[in-house]
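The methods section describes the discrete structure representation at length, but only in general terms. What matters is that the chain and its backbone geometry are given together, residue for residue. Nothing conveys this as quickly as seeing an actual entry. For illustration, here is how one protein appears when written out as sequence plus structure tokens:
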Amino acid sequence: MMGVVGPELVWAIIMLVLVASSIWSHRMPIGQFLRYSLIWAALFVGIYGLVLFRSELGEFWVRAKVDLLGDTTPEVVGSATRIRQSSDGHFRVSATIDGRTFEFLIDSGATSSFLSTAAAAELGLAVRRDRPGLVFQTANGPINAWPVDVGTIRAGSIEMRDMRMMVSDGDNSVNILGMDWLNRLAGWRVEQGIMTVEP
């Protein structure tokens, strides 16, 4: 660590001295000289701090982005994938289906996985609503849904092929990964606001 940061500190000191010399050469009043010197010193200390703690700041930014921006990008660690809990207490993840990316809510209370009507249309999936649908009980009452087959769904290190999903009636805009997705995993757990899923 010191082998990398040390030279940067030396260069910062050299640049600080050069700036101070330049300011002094203009023969400005001592008060003004000190004020400018303090400003430049604060700038150099700030830049040096950013360099010194860049790894810690990177981790801080990842956590802040999840809380503030609702980032749903999964983090791959070895063969496992980690998904951070969002500020509303749910787990959401960006998943790719046949080359297109959608946001999914992971819901262990849902027996099946669902695609929104918009997502199904974007993927060009034919929803046969002219046939009898399946009835699912939800918190808002029963809904009708029709099965569609997707080629490949991938979230982080998790890739599943030939998965059957449901498209409900009405203007449903939520994509859901339910227990049928979770049951195909080697394992999953939730610890300290992080869901870890194993392929």
Observations:
- The chain has two domains: 2-52, 71-198.
